[in-house]
């Protein structure tokens, strides 16, 4: 008698197969009769256009989706088994982003490397990324949450670097940019045959490594006592998983979360035998990706726009990540600041000094820069002529940096999490999501409507993070992972809208890069007003912020309403994040860096810390905007991307310093 778990698995696979087959025939039966479809599969009539399309495009795409789904699910299964991490897969570990960056770099400066095949460049980039992620998590014994957290940070940094390279080499990298979204469109059988050969070799190697793979699921001393060389077995299996994922990325682009979803689905059936899971995981992954691709084809036909399959899997995978995060069991790792506490003796004098420095930087940003004739100091009438273009940018950078820094400080104090910030927790992505929803359902682009939509998106994202993290008592790493997963879902919707070809998508794409060069005085005025009002409100919140790190019990014992105080802070943080995002886009790490620099200087508590953070954030983004405007003149690097280049390595440094 077949066990119940196996019956469940067969039911799941049968349902997926039936749904996929139904979609496949629904999509293609309208093109030609069933008899012609069967004929076109084996010997198409070269005078019949629809049969040629079916034989050289539809069937290869179906084959590639099956093979790629199997390869990605196997890679995810190996990562999860070796690292004992149910969230591990090529996307969450940053491997896909590393492969993409490697291909971008080779395509620009080392095209000769791509002659033997793109897969080798992708493999090197993937292996380097995995090594970096494991190095970041080493001090926490490569715990599951720290590995995923490191993978998401590396993904953000590598994606930002790739975005800059694509931005300034758009013509040369246009095909690579479209490939990055994960399209399965095929014109021949070459990719399908190549993937089939590579997958066959990988399966043969995996069969030979079943025993080491099974032993690595145990703890290291037990595996060693059974005669396994843990270090070499882990290295060999990880390289195999990296190869499986990089060969898919090199051929069809980034397909996210299939390596997470397929092993999770098989695990939920209750099957424990490794040999059975090795069979069911690739089959499930192949059917999942095929079903997703067939659904995407059906939707693309309905809206008359090609929707990349990779974006669709990212959109559905992020909620799955949110569901799986609470299932992790691991010891608590504090995510507090590793900086040595110190106190400044005279905060007022230092605040005055920072204000003077900000004024000096503002004057330099307005008067000094590169012009067609070279570097130039502008005074008098030339400066007045330049003020029309430079003044809005400078004021936008100051306002946006200050608001992000204040929002970051509020969130760090409220969650007792030194790595929290609007950018890391996906609040800025939520603001962008709100703007996209506004674009979808209305043609209104007024500043008031944009601010309302961005604030609603930021507040909804922040509220979701709080709701999903409350059961874990706001564990810092759970908060970070929940925020990053939520931000991933928002980014997927935004990218899907951009890929849809709306007339305003180019404007949205430029804005998301974090540039200030389109800012107008009409947009800067409301932002400055919001910043001023926030600074007037902040002194009223100091008592709450000083008690949040002590815990809810202490707060209630002192007569504070935790829910009410948290709601007020959430509203203010959402409004500040949304206002800043509207000016400079969602890409920036000012909300993370500025509060930590202020702590290093000596501001520990009270209103002085909030005010110092605002001044520091304004200076950081103002400097990033000036650098982006002048470094490669006449071209420009968006201020948000410049800040990300500084912020992402700093975040990695913070992770590396934890729990020394």
Automatic annotation (TrEMBL):
Q: Does the keyword Cell membrane apply?
A: yes
Name the predominant localization. Answer: membrane
Task: Output the Pfam families linked to this UniProt entry.
Answer: FecCD
Stretches that traverse the bilayer: 9-29, 62-79, 91-114, 120-137, 149-172, 192-210, 248-266, 278-299, 311-329, 350-371, 391-411, 423-442, 448-467, 479-499, 519-542, 563-580, 586-603, 610-627, 633-653
Compartment list: Cell membrane
Q: How does it sit in the membrane?
A: Multi-pass membrane protein
Q: Which InterPro entries match?
A: ABC_BtuC-like (IPR037294), ABC_transptr_permease_BtuC (IPR000522)
PANTHER family the UniProt entry points to:
FE(3+) DICITRATE TRANSPORT SYSTEM PERMEASE PROTEIN FECD-RELATED, FERRIC ENTEROBACTIN TRANSPORT SYSTEM PERMEASE PROTEIN
- Recorded family membership: Belongs to the binding-protein-dependent transport system permease family. FecCD subfamily.
Protein name stated in the entry: Fe3+-hydroxamate ABC transporter permease FhuB
Q: Source species, please? A: Hafnia psychrotolerans
